[in-house]
Amino acid sequence: MDCKISTHIEENETYVRSRLYNCDDCIIRPMILGEEKKIRCLVVYIEVAVSNMMLEDSVIGKLVNHMWEMPAEEILQFVKDNGMGISDVQPLDTMDAAFASMLAGNAVFFLDGYARAIKVSSKGYPNLSVAEASREKVLRGSKEGFTDAVKTNSALVRKRIRDTRLKVKQKTLGERSQTLVQLLYMEDLVRPELLQDIEDRLDSFVIDGVLDSGVIEQLTEESWISPFPQFQTTERPDKCAAEILNGRILLLCDHSPIGMLLPAAFGDFLQVSEDHYNRFEIVSLQRLIRYAAVFFTLLFSGTYLAVTNFHTQVLPASLILSFSEARQGVPFPGVLEILFMEIAFETIREAGVRMPGPLGGTIGIVGGLIVGQAAVEANLVSPIVVVVVAVTALCSLAIPNEEFSAPFRLLKFGFILLGGTLGVFGILLGLYLTASHLAGLKSFGIPYLTPFAAQTKAGYRGEGDSVIRAPFRFLTRRPLYAQRNQKVRLRMEKGGK
User: Fold this and answer.
1) What is the average pLDDT value for the chain, to the nearest integer?
2) 3-class SS of residue 11
């Protein structure tokens, strides 16, 4: 049961000290205010989150110093009438609200004779400052990336969309972690049913702690068994701002430098923020390369096995003889060759990610060269297999979203087994199963293969903004994410050519 705040400071102090027993990082500071030193007060705060609190330039310092020499009879009336206007403060009615504010990094002020606590905002917990986005590199556009502080992240988006129709709705998740989660959306663009759906999903579970946005993603996905992500993750506020203007919702989680955009369709993962900053010719070429990279990541190794094991007649005789000569002395069948090299590459990739600093890139390059060359010289694998695996690896790295490339790297092992045992029939079977799964997958009601498999819903991403990007002046319509009466996003004034 929620405990009300007493007008007696002794009762409040007793309750606070009982709750904070053995919490040595929490500071409880009693004081006596007024020129006759008759009004007792209590300030409670986290030591690191609220430092130097009695300095004149601190928020709590301004509040306390203002009342230090006031007559005792005026202090309570001052707080009730206009104390809230001194600085960024807020009255709290219950002890649970007071402790929630204190544990969020604020100072909480109790005053004898006043049946409320006062939350005084401070600098909060230590956080990383705004830095360059590390995972999503671009040549043109903003270099800013999200931080670990959710309110800083929403401010980075607000800086780019200076419109009161941009709404920020807050929720607290995690019974013990009390993690702040924010939903950002344009009020007149977002579909009300989509907003209600994500709010219902956030309310559908109770958990001890939410320490990263990945926990929310796994608990709110409709098709949780699918390896394909139904949220689009990004660390770039400019990309989030652009997608919010398309009618999508941005979910930000405290302690996580990653924003999650929803809904998310297949094509969204193959687009980057600078696609709208560059000319349409080069952007179209880059998108074609990314789509090709997806298919090569999935099919190249398995198709090589299918052709060399079962369908050699489709290759020129000279190429077949070259493959046969390269395999002289290799003791293992082609399937084991490919699996050995693919697993070796995934291991090197994982080691490169986990190694600190510049050693990560070094171990990836050196490890790949040494393992590949040593395996060929020892006749464990043939040179052509090293080439096939290297091309597959490069293609997986060309997919701009890491969460989206992971399922294709996983499924390629299935295609290797299918191609190596059933030939082209196995490849076609794998494609049928993968396409069937994607065709039935939805992200918050939006078909995953939109616009390729949902042609009845016109205007998915506007005319000419899918695999090929049309000139920017022709991108006049928003995707189907936005409300139907808000489709137009660009109008050329009279005289525009």
Assistant:
1) 84
2) helix
Cα 207 to Cα 103, 155, 173, 495: the distances in Å are 18, 28, 8, 58
What Å distances lie between residue 219 and 195, 203, 230, 286, 364, CA to CA? 17, 11, 12, 34, 34
81 pLDDT more than 90 = no
- Backbone φ and ψ for 55, nearest 5 degrees, come out as -70, 150
Contacts of residue 475, Cβ cutoff 8 Å, sequence gap at least 6: 276, 462, 463, 464, 465, 469, 489, 490
Residues in Cβ contact with 38 at an 8 Å cutoff, skipping those fewer than 6 apart: 32, 72
Strand partners, 186: 166
pTM of the model: 0.85
Q: Per residue in 50-73, pLDDT tens? A: 765 544 455 556 666 666 666 666
- Give 211's contacts (C-beta < 8 A, 6+ positions apart): 177, 179, 255
Residue with tokens 């171990």, as numbered in its chain: 363
Alpha helices in 261-316 (DSSP H): 280-310
Q: CA neighbours within 13 Å on the CB side: how many for 324? A: 9
C-alpha distances in angstroms, 241 versus 155, 185, 358, 430, 444? 11, 9, 32, 37, 20
